[in-house]
Amino acid sequence: KRFIEVLVVDDGSTDSSRDIIKKQYLSTFPKFRLVENHHQGKAFAIIRGIQEARGTHVIFTDIDLATPIEEVEKLISVANSGYNIVMGSRESKREGAPLSRKVLALGFIVIRNVVFGLKGIRDTQCGFKLFETKAAQNIINKLILFKKQHTIKGSSVSAAFDLEFVFLASRFKYKIKEVPVEWRHVETKNVNFFKDAIETIKDLARIKYYDLRGLYV
Length: 217
Description:
The protein is α/β, with parallel strands linked by helices. It contains seven helices and six strands, in the order βαβαβαβαβααβα. Strands 3-5-4-6 form a four-stranded mixed beta sheet, with helices on both faces. Strands 1-2 form a two-stranded parallel sheet.
């Protein structure tokens, strides 16, 4: 029998999200928990969820469910065969995504492959991943770029968090597997992708700098 809990990490939302979760879910489903963060961006929302997780494995998914939650069975099946980290993969498909997003994604993949290698890994950015909890907690303790918590203004969905996490997982020899999953583009109105793309490039340079200095130990 599986122990299951659902953690909803609220990253300092300013709309009625928290009230909806409390009224419609927490009072009805005892396995739901609300974790409230100051607004710190995607990376620290995921980190907080991993820190709060009580099961042997933790799965994170974007709240828009761009990948149907039913796809989780694919990840669980692979994890049960001995993998520490199982990542949903869109296999370079961006169905329904605008051309600008596809170009940015392709540019990121090229930079990632040239600078970091990560042979055999095609999609570090899909928001649908499963981790062995102990492995994930160990990895987040080794993060440098996303180590210090902070309060921000506006959106922050830097792709560098996923990359630093997967890069360290590979560096420390955790068993990683990609699994093809269904995915659909969901329009996000409050995210400036070009601004975040610039921040991502800066963050990638910082990660490489930390690596060259031998700071990831």
